[in-house]
Design goal:
This protein is an all-alpha fold. The chain has four helices and no strands.
Length: 78
């Protein structure tokens, strides 16, 4: 059921790099694109979420999780 895919691996690395850059530059992003100091924690949280999603993409587990969710919602279709 699990198979390695180089495309998703590279997409996962890109998502992890993007999340890491969000965490590193969270103050600059918060000052220029958000409402300032109140959003610093939220921006770090979004960066961590991007890293987690990137890890799922790298290991190609996102398709397995989506199949599980769809099987719970519509058991006869999948």
């Amino acid at each position: 059921m699990w198979e390695f895919n180089i495309g998703w691996f590279l997409a996962g690395i890109a998502a992890i790099v993007a999340g890491a850059l969000i965490i590193v530059f969270h103050k600059w992003i918060g000052d220029n694109f958000a409402s300032g100091m109140v959003s610093y924690g939220k921006i770090k949280l979004f960066g961590l979420a991007a890293i987690g999603i990137g890890l799922l993409f790298m290991t190609n587990l996102h398709t397995t999780l989506l199949r599980l969710i769809f099987h719970i919602i519509m058991p006869s279709k999948f």
